[in-house]
Write a structure and sequence with these properties.
This protein is α/β, with parallel strands linked by helices. The N and C termini lie far apart (about 65 Å). Helix 2 links the parallel strand 1 and strand 2. The protein is built from ten helices and ten strands. The longest helix is centred in the first third of the chain and has 23 residues.
Length: about 270
């Protein structure tokens, strides 16, 4: 017993600082609690819709005196700062937003608003050298496919989408054949876009905005309605947001904004 006690004390001395460090990495320091009311409307979220949102923000700024700042990237790259000053966070799917809310305690789940939908697409190389016209073409031997997966370590709207599409008709063989052609399970859309280029892939299951924003690299091939999978774009407003942030959210679903969002594949 006397030998065990010193060992336990040493273990405790090591463990407690490690726990404190982990907690400090996942939440703001005591002096940095959420304080968004600074005269700038800040939106944070995963990359994808940021360019469409920027167009809407530019239109809104023309008749308002506040600036809108849009920050996107993998969640770890902005999570800490967003917990300090975010007015709005966006999710590129419902499961993504649900994961965000585990960290963002000033954003109540009841206040999350689904605002747009977009369908998954097949992104191919510009010019479509493989002549891919439909999902079934991806089941042929030799086709190289990139898919986006959280893999249990990343928060991404692409998680499970390829499986939903491949298994949509209830045919296990479709899932098997598609899976054999996957050359990368990338943790996030940005990583998938990079893998698509570096691995010289033929197809990537993704969202329309990636083809819209990168026409020199990607071309969108629609997926038939019988296999189509949709995910929403949703937003949450902080309980301590700048007062005009709510006005921006209302503008985001206006007729003018809908036209801008539709250009990137988002519909209501």
């Amino acid at each position: 017993m006397h030998r065990i006690l010193p060992t336990l004390l040493v273990f405790t001395a090591i463990l407690l600082p490690a726990v404190a460090m982990a907690q400090s990495m996942s939440s703001p320091a005591a002096g940095e609690r959420h304080q968004a009311r600074d005269g700038v409307i800040r939106l944070y979220g995963a990359c994808g819709p940021q360019n469409a949102l920027r167009k809407v923000a530019d239109a809104w700024e023309r008749s308002n005196d506040l600036k809108v700042k849009i920050i996107c990237g993998p969640e770890p790259s902005w999570s800490h700062q967003a917990q300090v000053d975010a007015d709005i966070i966006w999710g590129t799917s419902e499961q993504s937003m649900t994961a965000f809310l585990q960290s963002f305690l000033s954003f109540p789940s009841k206040d999350v608003s689904p605002v747009y939908l977009r369908p998954a697409i097949i992104a191919v190389k510009t010019g479509n050298p493989q002549r891919i016209k439909r999902f079934e073409d991806l089941l042929q031997p030799g086709i190289r496919i990139v898919v986006t997966e959280g893999s249990g370590v990343a928060n991404t709207s692409g998680t499970g989408v390829w499986e939903d599409i491949a298994g949509r008709l209830g045919k296990l063989e479709d899932v098997k054949r598609f899976r054999r052609n996957i050359v990368a399970f990338s943790t996030g859309s940005g990583a998938s876009f990079k893998a698509f280029q570096e691995l010289d892939a033929d197809a990537w299951i993704t969202w329309p905005e990636w083809a819209v924003d990168n026409p020199q690299v990607l071309q969108a091939i629609p997926i038939s309605s019988e296999r189509s999978i949709w995910r929403d774009l949703n937003l949450a407003l902080s309980t301590s947001a700048d007062p005009q942030a709510a006005s921006f959210l209302r503008f985001l679903v206006s007729d003018e904004a809908q036209k801008l969002m539709r250009s990137a594949g988002y519909v209501r």
